Amino acid sequence: MLSLNQEVHGPKTSEVYGFVGSISIVVATVIFLIWGYVPDKFLESIGIYYYPSKYWAMAMPMYSMVTLLVALVFYIGLNFMSTSKPTSLNTLFDDYSREDVNFLPLMKNGEDRPIDPISDIDITRINDLMFDSHLAK
Amino acid sequence: MAEPPKLRVLMVSDFFFPNFGGVENHIYYLSQCLLKLGHKVVVMTHAYGNRSGVRYMTGGLKVYYVPWRPFVMQTTFPTVYGTLPIVRTILRREKITVVHGHQAFSTLCHEALMHARTMGYKVVFTDHSLYGFADVGSIHMNKVLQFSLADIDQAICVSHTSKENTVLRSGLSPAKVFMIPNAVDTAMFKPASVRPSTDIITIVVISRLVYRKGADLLVEVIPEVCRLYPNVRFVVGGDGPKHVRLEEMREKHSLQDRVEMLGAVPHSRVRSVLVTGHIFLNSSLTEAFCIAILEAASCGLLTVSTRVGGVPEVLPDDMVVLAEPDPDDMVRAIEKAISILPTINPEEMHNRMKKLYSWQDVAKRTEIVYDRALKCSNRSLLERLMRFLSCGAWAGKLFCMVMILDYLLWRLLQLLQPDEDIEEAPDICLCHHRGVEVSEGLRKKIK
Known about the structure:
The structure holds two protein chains of two kinds.
Chain A: H1 2-37, H2 40-45, H3 55-81, H4 123-131, H5 133-136
Chain B: E1 8-12, H1 22-36, E2 40-46, E3 53-57, E4 61-66, E5 70-72, E6 75-76, H2 84-93, E7 98-102, H3 107-118, E8 122-127, H4 136-149, E9 154-157, H5 160-170, E10 177-179, E11 201-206, H6 215-228, E12 232-237, H7 243-253, E13 259-263, H8 270-274, E14 279-282, H9 291-298, E15 302-306, E16 320-323, H10 327-340, H11 346-356, H12 359-375, H13 381-389, H14 395-416, H15 434-446
Parallel strand pairs in B: 1-2, 1-7, 2-4, 7-8, 8-9, 9-10, 11-12, 11-14, 12-13, 14-15, 15-16
Antiparallel strand pairs in B: 3-4, 5-6
Helix pairs in contact in B: 1-12, 2-3, 6-7, 6-10, 13-14
Subcellular location (chain B): Endoplasmic reticulum membrane
Pathway (chain B): Glycolipid biosynthesis; glycosylphosphatidylinositol-anchor biosynthesis
Enzyme class (chain B): transferase
């Protein structure tokens, strides 16, 4: 019963929210632009005397943009700080390193073989494969 | 002497080991099968705690754990241009030919696809999830997807339902979207050699206990089924926020001896849990695809599932009993499943799954998509900007500005560090056959 009610009203609720949201944004934008651009004299002539200082019409957007830029710079700086040093052992081992486990060591011929489970290959072996000319052949 | 690799693929996603989930498994298994086909595969993801830097994993899979901090739910903070230098370096070092991004909710994936397209690489995108159209998060996500996919070469979805969803959300041409399902490693998920007796019918549930997976449905379904069938018991594997609700349900209906809660089940132990049961119950509220029911069917279990998203496409009708995501209908479906249980042959079901789904088949089909992407003609910046312009009255212009700036930044990077100055990483040839590895070991001893 509850789910049935939700199904009936759900789409309509979303549509109402969307409609009210878009109208509100348009109205808010118009009010903001009037506040920011119409001179004080005109506003006072039609009886509007009390509104926030026009300074904030410029300041708030600028503050927001600068905050966003600074947040980006901070985030990228944070990432550089979290980079391991070249001498750090975390570039070789970590909490999640897994040795290669050879389960099912006895495999019959023709029997399906599962895809190997995920595991790390030791860096010494990689170096041998990469740079030892004998093994490379 | 190893043959030169056919393709050099970069997989990009925020989600990879040591995280666990469907996307992580998909990337890993697909990579392994592509490696076996002779291609070179590199994975790019962000650092997970101390796991940072470059790792070589099973089969020679190279993984770049870029030191980029996750922001929310293992997704990095969107910086738009912040990843351009590292993406460029990786693409150049590994001589990548195709960039394959995974998951619509992965920030790193979208940024990498954008940068790769700017640099002229072929890009493929795989979408793993369904998203709605009406809530605030989905509206914003769909706009990002429209931007990210406006300029893409090919896309892959894991079910036809997922393809419809992605095409509607992103405005992508349906001709560019391929349907390649997930798969299951049938060699790992085999039925029990001796099937458990049906005197007591065991129903297995393995999923995260969250709202999206329908844990609230379980709270209502389990007591009702236990009341109707005294010989039924449940095994619930998985952990999550709804764990407490299920515990309360056990207490309330005195089902401690008939409902077993296992907690989190590592993927390597999933099979041993599945083979103890006769029926697998999936109560998801939304699914693009459902690997769990593939694994269950491969183990010979009859599946009962909600009829949501791409689930009806996954299994043949005689392997699954579908129900609406409603407790009463699910109870009826379980009743139907119990009635047809005697006709189920686990071994036969496993053999059919082996033919229907395999990661090797997925890799071959993905290979076709890569070849198709490589055949797409290169497009100049102006042509690409035209595509972005058509994304919307205001959004289109904004997208164009973003792409122009991306192009200029790329040129700046080329000025600061030319492509020729980036050192190329040497390749490794890792033998896949165990016998050869042994001989290598012997050779080392000889040295």
